TrEMBL record:
Family per record: Belongs to the polysaccharide monooxygenase AA9 family.
Coarse class of the protein's main subcellular location: secreted
Protein's recorded name: lytic cellulose monooxygenase (C4-dehydrogenating)
Keyword terms of this UniProt record: Carbohydrate metabolism, Cellulose degradation, Copper, Disulfide bond, Hydrolase, Metal-binding, Monooxygenase, Oxidoreductase, Polysaccharide degradation, Secreted, Signal
GO biological process, one term: cellulose catabolic process
Signal peptide span: 1-17
GO cellular component: extracellular region
Any GO molecular function: metal ion binding
Enzyme class: oxidoreductase
Biased composition (Low complexity): 249-278
Record region (Disordered): 249-294
Boundaries of every Auxiliary Activity family 9 catalytic domain copy: 18-228
Length: 307
């Protein structure tokens, strides 16, 4: 027989290994998210119903997370604002995973308020991508293990309007086998002001799902065997209008010109890198307060059989 204590420890470990977007700070405002599957309160973050990762590049939940529901509020933002995404694990502690890239997309909601926008119809463009902090070193995702947020800059020349901003963590710890990659996406509803004119071109827009394949070199990858190898980011390149819109600290494998480092005291370890379309082309050409725990446990935990 498996002891109740052992089962409890296993379940706790599995929950802790997953997580969700707990809060987001936009400019000077901070917005809380809802615990997955809890009774929702007003938020700008779309609520998911399960802390499990999204598995499979064609999963319908790839856009905003597990069965994500529209949020009731929309945050006001300005071009050039910093957006700080604070992720937590399933026990509401610091983010656990430390291997894999972070990418950020945006999508226009058109003339409608984003609280009623159906993301299955969204056309997404990438504004940021970040891999390792230093060549062969830690991934930027690992900086969140200390509780640091992941910081992204809204392009300073973006056209005003209604947008969803989507932050994505791609955990690669078991990505050496087909279907092993684990996506953690989260969506925040914005209304951006200003008088910018920046916008993606039609060939920079992608669908989610649709932008990735399970066999992409950045999705099906052994992240441990050759840490010095350049990481090939999946999906589209960062939209051209973003380049030069803001100057930020880029990691060794980042091709984004938007600021995208996970920042806290540990960010002093990050190195500055060049950015822009030239860098992107070269890299692609080279090798293409205490929260309650979620009400529901993950599918992994549901499959545990007690003998």
């Amino acid at each position: 027989m498996i002891s109740a204590l052992f089962v409890s420890l296993v379940l706790s470990s599995l929950v802790s290994a997953h997580g969700w977007l707990n809060s987001v700070a936009i400019g000077t405002q901070t917005f809380k998210g809802n615990v997955p599957n809890a009774s929702p309160t007003a938020s700008v973050i779309r609520q998911i119903n399960d802390v499990d990762p999204v598995k499979g590049a064609n999963n319908s939940f790839l856009a905003c997370g597990q069965n994500a529901q529209s949020a009731t509020q929309v945050a006001s933002a300005n071009p050039g604002d910093n957006v700080a995404f604070s992720w937590v694990n399933g026990d509401a502690g610091p983010w656990v995973h430390n291997t894999g890239p972070m990418m950020t997309y945006m999508a226009s909601c058109g003339d409608q308020n984003c609280s009623s926008f159906d993301v299955s119809t969204a056309s997404w463009f990438k504004i940021q991508e970040q891999g390792r902090v230093t060549p062969g070193g830690a991934w930027a995702m690992s900086l969140m293990n200390s509780g640091a947020p992941a910081n992204v800059t809204i392009p300073s020349n973006i056209a005003p309007g209604n947008y969803i901003i989507r932050h994505e963590l791609l955990a690669l710890q078991i990505a050496q086998t087909l279907g092993g990659a684990e996506w953690y996406p989260a969506c925040v509803q914005l209304q951006i002001g200003g008088n910018g004119t920046g916008a993606p071109t039609s060939d920079e827009l992608v669908k989610l799902p649709g932008a990735y394949s399970d066999s992409d070199p950045g999705v099906l990858v052994d992240a441990y065997s050759n840490p010095n190898a350049d990481y090939v980011f999946p999906g589209p390149q960062v939209a051209a209008f973003v380049n030069g819109s803001s100057t930020g600290t880029a990691d060794a494998n980042s091709t984004a010109s938007a600021s995208g480092s996970a920042t806290a005291a540990s960010t002093s370890a990050a190195t500055s890198g060049s950015s822009g379309s030239c860098m992107k082309k070269k890299k692609r050409a080279a090798d293409q307060a205490q929260l309650p725990r979620p009400r529901t446990v993950s599918r992994v935990m549901k499959n545990i059989v007690i003998a």
